[in-house]
TrEMBL record:
<feature type="domain" description="MsrB">
    <location>
        <begin position="15"/>
        <end position="139"/>
    </location>
</feature>
<protein>
    <recommendedName>
        <fullName>peptide-methionine (R)-S-oxide reductase</fullName>
        <ecNumber>1.8.4.12</ecNumber>
    </recommendedName>
</protein>
<dbReference type="Pfam" id="PF01641">
    <property type="entry name" value="SelR"/>
</dbReference>
<dbReference type="InterPro" id="IPR002579">
    <property type="entry name" value="Met_Sox_Rdtase_MsrB_dom"/>
</dbReference>
<dbReference type="InterPro" id="IPR011057">
    <property type="entry name" value="Mss4-like_sf"/>
</dbReference>
<keyword id="KW-0560">Oxidoreductase</keyword>
<dbReference type="InterPro" id="IPR028427">
    <property type="entry name" value="Met_Sox_Rdtase_MsrB"/>
</dbReference>
């Protein structure tokens, strides 16, 4: 994964350390900007309330109250939590222009954000996030 220009992660580990801590599929998505197959992730249809954390570093990223059914095959949120929880960067891979979403704390790949798709949400944005990039901490 290329470094994010002008930003220093708060959680810094060597790629060897990441490989040791993450499973092979987690590593491929979080550290190599892969994508899990649609409809395969554990949080696609989850309705539980709580906070979604970065699976790599534990940073709080999204609240369940911003999750919505987009029927795209991945968990979708209309906004990250307040503050600088995520970093957005231009992604021109695969012959298209997209906006990649990374964890601001460890710079792990989360997914992509799309705008103007006509969803009835407060932001008209869809943060399309890989389930394997997240861990849900349910409210008690």
């Amino acid at each position: 994964m290329e470094p994010v220009v002008g930003a220093t992660p708060r959680v810094v580990k060597s790629e060897r350390e990441w490989r040791e801590e993450l499973g092979p599929v987690e590593y491929a998505v979080l550290r190599q900007a892969g994508t899990e197959p649609p409809w395969s992730g554990e949080y696609v249809e989850t309705k539980a309330t709580g906070v979604y954390e970065c699976r790599a570093c534990g940073a709080e990223l999204f609240r369940s109250s911003t999750k919505f059914d987009s029927h795209c095959g991945w968990p979708s949120f209309f906004s990250p939590m307040a503050g600088d929880r995520v970093i957005l960067r231009e992604d021109r891979k695969h012959g298209m222009l997209r906006t990649e979403v990374l964890c601001a704390s460890c710079h792990s790949h989360l997914g992509h954000v799309f705008e103007g798709e006509g969803y009835d949400t407060p932001t008209d944005q869809r943060y399309c996030i890989n389930s394997i990039s997240l861990r849900l901490v349910e409210d008690e």
